[in-house]
TrEMBL record, chain B:
Domain Thiolase C-terminal span(s) in chain numbering: 244-374
Database matches in Pfam families: Thiolase_C_1
Gene3D superfamilies given in the database record: 3.40.47.10
Name by which UniProt lists this protein: Thiolase domain-containing protein
């Protein structure tokens, strides 16, 4: 299997609303920054893949206009997933493994501000039995949190600790949207308080992947993708054990996470309670630095937040702050689908 | 390490109709998936990963429906990907699935594309009014008709070419039990007597709106060795994109289409597509796109595509049959239409196309594109295992 | 800096969903106040009944009847119900394992407050007064005071009812506020002054109208404003003979691509001011403004000689 690495990562300054810019206007500076990091331009890239959602945008084919920001001329080899950008990265990684490309641009963006994101995400649910009841993602996460508390896996004070730690970490992250938990004490859906929930906001992210020597040429310390896997579970909450995430565990096994310890974890846990589930599934001990960026509790641009986890973990390797990191992305209600990447830097 | 060879060993599709009232969305996909598995004599347990594709989520009103569809497609515990590249999505989805095998990430992959357009209304889904944007003043065909006129002006093609394509494709569809439109009493006169909706496009030269799904099982060399029926081998596959609107865009013969075809031919070692390719399933949503794509894909010189159509070259018994299945003009579940092209190309080289089989087809091209003529995906499949 | 525009964008449709046999039986059963589940190969009873086994993916068809009372397996108190949710007063979201079932279903529980809800509590279905064969035929759950029927096991059920429900209509409305961004805001502001303002790419120098914020071939922002038109050339067109949805324009009419003078790609518009069958490629036209401050109502011939094909063929 070819060695493939994340060699560049850029993101927007995430904000509650970016109404002043269109999606392409939000995305384009992020693409430029990613290109600049590796001194490449669009025509140097072997494959481009993006992730976004029409439902979030409220418009069909919304991704077609975002491509304007790439400068797809002459024509480029390009694809799009209607998923978080982490899965776009997966598609790009596979493309590089085929040998058809040596470099790839991956980007994703999401503007939650135009719609009511809690209502929008209800449209993901079983269209016959569940979507007609409009249960929002906070409600579903709260059902999961209650199950965790009932099972003795966590407590409300422990969740408050996750919230406080995440926002404190975010103070060092200039791209974070939320860096404090002021007035976070009231319940949104009990047992989840405002502080347990992610901020709603807009953002974009871009990553450049490269293979082997190209990666070494483009980046002083590439974040090598040692393993990458994703798995999905059954859809209905009522048939799943909400206190566990077997798909995360399986993806982690396949990605080789358990072969050696990691020092850093970037987890796509939009709710504090989901970090509890993921820590158990990924067997992360207290020695692991979890979400040093602040994680999705500090900035959660839907469709990009998973890709950002991969980018944040890679950036720590680039900077020399991590040698082996795990990054995780999720999709669907209560962690239905999960992606796990194991990233490593060369020995310093 | 070179790419692993990829074989198509299972193909299934639903009988495409205007509205499938008897199944859920999952039931529709499941039907195609089970037929593909049965064709390969495999079960869901043999599948390592699932890749699905469809056009905009608004068509069925389900956001990221792969989440709800995981159970029905046997994907629980497996990787599942969802592709969306507009009209080319069915083709792109198959290529993403094939890359999983080619990259040796998985051995055997199920890929499914669908649209259940009867859940909503395609025109609603395609034309959600957006504030501040000038509405398309013409309806669906109005987007395409000016490009057809431009083609006619550029090439001097006579007015009747479009009707020849529609007449051919609808007759071919009569030989395809899965095709949506079965116009048993079709005549050229009827095609020509149909009302001109968006002059120069007649009603009879437009595609229907269908409920349908298509599925394929893709596997590696070892999987192909075990398969009961002849596989179709992937000889080349590519996607190309260009911006939707830009200064210098050639809507009649987009550069992305030319580049995509050139990449596929290079991979497959094709130097003379007209002679070396035995059958073509191309994405022709309006009849005139057949001569346009004949030129764009290198089967005819610029300005000459319509002459092939006029001479009967693209007929089922011609020397370059185009859309023996009846094509998009006879069947159009939008998100599936591209994959149906890819699957029909594979059926041809497997010798499994039944009544619409092109005699002795060894190499066939599947072609899909997005409505704005900005996204292209293509694959070339052959009866023989590729040598390189 | 012009104030950034925004406007409501409503995405609303009554989706018509056909049902598979298991869903049809379940939803018809609800209409008849009968709760059905489905039995799996390993003898588990799934409620609500799904078509395909979530573990094995096997097709499931063996229906059983389960109780209308059950046990809360987890819950969450919702103090601020949304506009489409089952109850308009604060309620608990619950997963309920109905008597005779092995899995739990999601619904709402009407209770006095969070202190009145607990995991393991007994609840029963409150049926909607009018039932149509939908999940909302269960109005919600309510606490079971012990007067309900005792716990029961699942019993076989034929799943057949008179006049079965074969589909549901699922209305869905989502409200967005759409903002077109900086470039289009500048463009729209100029339209109000009856000016067509494109933007030039700093790299390739092409002039884009309408500007969309980026030069799509160069991937860089366009910011230099350039007034184009008002004259332009019809590059291609079609004659529309069928009324488009939501458009109140008398047919036939001509819909054309128009290259405004100074622009490097064509925009689109309706041609008026002459019989539809006299419109030609190459015809010179100019905008006819409406009084609403928006886009031109249509374009009309200027009377100039037609442009030669070579002058606009790159924009066809």
């Amino acid at each position: 299997m070819r060695d493939v690495a994340i060699v560049a990562f850029a993101q927007s300054r995430h904000a509650r609303s970016t109404a002043e810019v269109s999606e392409v206007e939000l995305l384009m500076p992020v693409l430029h920054e990613a290109f600049d990091q590796v001194e490449l331009k669009a025509s140097d890239i072997g494959f481009t893949c993006s992730g976004s959602s029409d439902y979030l945008a409220g418009r069909a084919f919304s991704f077609t206009m975002a491509l304007d920001g790439v400068g797809a001329w002459p024509p480029i080899s390009e694809s799009h997933v209607e998923m978080d950008g982490a899965w776009a990265l997966y598609e790009a990684w596979v493309k590089i493994l085929t040998g058809e490309a040596d470099t790839a641009l991956v980007y994703s963006y999401g503007k939650s501000s135009p719609g009511d994101v809690r209502e929008v995400l209800t449209r993901q649910l079983d269209p016959y039995y569940v979507a007609p009841l409009w249960p929002d993602p906070v409600a579903l996460a709260a059902l999961q949190a209650r199950a965790l508390i009932d099972a003795g896996h966590t407590s409300e004070p422990e969740l408050a600790g996750v919230a406080a730690r995440s926002r404190a970490s975010a103070r060092d992250n200039p791209y974070a949207q939320l860096t404090s938990v002021r007035d976070g004490g009231e319940y949104v859906v009990q047992p989840l308080r405002r502080q347990d929930c992610p901020p709603v906001g807009d953002g974009a992210a871009a990553i450049v992947l490269a293979a082997g020597d190209t990666a070494r040429r483009l980046c002083a310390r590439p974040a090598w993708i040692r393993g990458l896997d994703h798995r999905i579970e059954a859809h209905s909450l009522g048939v799943r054990d909400l206190t566990d995430s077997p798909s995360t565990r399986l993806a982690a096994e396949r990605a080789g996470l358990f072969d050696a310890p990691v020092d850093t974890a970037e987890l796509h846990a939009p709710f504090t309670s989901q970090e509890v589930v993921l820590r158990r599934a990924l067997r992360l001990g207290d020695e692991v630095d979890v979400n040093p960026s602040g994680g999705p509790l500090a900035a959660n641009p839907i469709m990009a937040a998973g890709l950002i986890r991969l980018g944040e973990a890679a950036a720590r390797i680039h900077r020399g702050d991590s040698d082996r990191a795990v990054a995780h992305a999720t999709s669907g209600p209560c962690l239905q689908q999960n992606l796990v990447a194991v990233l490593e830097g060369d020995v310093k | 390490m070179s790419k692993a060879p990829v074989a198509v060993v299972g193909i299934g599709q639903t009988k495409h109709v205007a509205a499938r009232h008897d199944v859920s969305i999952a039931g529709l996909l499941r039907e195609a998936a089970l037929r593909a598995l049965a064709d390969a004599e495999l079960t869901f347990a043999d599948i390592d990963a699932v890749v699905i594709g469809k056009a905009p989520d608004f068509f069925e009103g389900v956001m990221m429906p792969e989440l709800y569809l995981a159970d029905a497609l046997g994907a629980v515990g497996k990787p599942m990907l969802r592709v969306h590249t507009a009209g080319s999505v069915g083709g792109s989805t198959a290529l993403v699935a094939s890359n999983l095998v080619a990259a040796r990430v998985h051995r055997t992959v199920l890929t499914v594309a669908f649209e259940k357009q009867s859940e909503s209304n395609a025109m609603w889904g395609l034309s959600l009014p957006i504030p501040f944007q000038q509405p398309l003043l013409a309806g669906a065909g109005g987007f395409f008709a000016p490009h057809v006129r431009a083609y006619m002006r550029r090439t001097g093609a006579p007015d009747h070419i479009g009707s020849l394509v529609a007449f051919k494709d609808r007759r071919n569809a009569l030989k395809n039990p899965y095709a949506h439109l079965h116009e048993k009493d079709i005549t050229l006169e009827k095609v020509r007597a149909a009302p001109m909706l968006w002059d120069p496009i007649r009603y009879s030269e437009t595609c229907p709106s269908s409920d349908g799904a298509v599925a394929m099982v893709l596997t590696d060399t070892e999987g192909a060795a075990r398969t009961p029926r002849p596989p179709a081998w992937l000889h080349g596959g590519a996607m190309r994109s260009e911006p939707t609107m830009f200064a210098g865009k050639d809507y009649v013969s987009p550069q992305a289409g030319k580049d995509c075809a050139a990449d596929v031919y290079r991979q497959a070692g094709i130097t003379d597509p007209r002679r070396e390719i035995d059958a073509v399933e191309m994405y022709v949503p309006f009849s005139w796109y057949e001569p346009m794509w004949l030129e764009n894909l290198g089967f005819a010189a610029e300005g000459e595509g319509w002459k092939l159509t006029e001479a009967g070259v693209t007929e089922l018994d011609g020397d370059l049959p185009v859309n023996p299945s009846g094509g998009v003009l006879s069947t159009n579940p939008i998100g599936a239409s591209g994959m149906i092209r890819f699957a029909e190309a594979a059926l041809q080289v497997r010798g499994q196309a039944g009544e619409h089989q092109v005699e002795g087809a060894r190499r066939a091209l599947g072609h899909a594109y997005g409505g704005g003529a900005q996204f292209f995906s293509m694959w070339l499949v052959g009866a023989d295992r590729p040598t390189t | 800096m012009t104030e950034v525009l925004s406007a409501p964008l409503v995405v609303e449709f009554p989706f018509t969903r056909s049902l598979g046999p298991v869903q049809s039986a379940f939803l018809t059963g609800l209409r008849e106040r009968t709760v059905l589940g489905v039995r799996t190969g390993d003898d588990r009873v799934l409620v609500p009944p799904v078509e395909y086994d979530p573990v094995t993916s096997a097709e499931l068809r063996e229906l059983v009847e389960v109780g209308a009372t059950g046990t809360v397996t987890t819950w969450a108190w919702n103090p601020d119900p949304g506009r489409n949710q089952p109850l308009s007063t604060p309620f608990a979201w619950v997963l309920v394992r109905l008597d005779g079932a092995d899995t739990a279903m999601l619904h709402a529980l009407d209770a006095a407050g969070p202190d009145a809800v607990s995991t393991g509590m007994r609840v029963r279905i409150r049926w909607a007064a009018e039932r149509v064969g939908a999940i909302t035929d269960i109005a919600c759950f309510e606490p079971d005071d012990g007067t309900g029927p005792p716990e029961r096991a699942a019993t076989a059920h034929h799943g057949e009812f008179t006049d079965p429900v074969t589909g549901i209509v699922a209305p869905a409305r989502l409200d967005y506020v759409y903002s077109p961004g900086r470039a289009q805001t500048r463009y729209l502001a100029a339209l109000a002054d009856r000016k067509m303002i494109g933007e030039r790419c700093p790299s390739c120098r092409k002039v884009y109208i309408p500007p969309r914020g980026a030069c799509p071939t160069c991937g860089v922002a366009t910011e230099e404003q350039v007034e184009v038109g008002p004259g332009g050339t019809i590059t291609t067109f079609c004659i529309v003979n069928i009324k488009a949805r939501g458009l109140d324009i008398e047919v036939p009419y001509v819909y054309a691509h128009i290259a405004l003078d100074g622009a490097d790609l064509a925009l689109h518009g309706r041609i008026g001011g002459l019989p539809y069958d006299q419109v030609r490629m190459g015809m010179r036209v100019e905008p006819v403004w409406s009084d609403d401050g928006g886009f031109p109502d249509h374009y009309r011939p200027t009377g100039e000689p037609d442009a030669g094909y070579d002058t606009y063929k790159e924009m066809v």
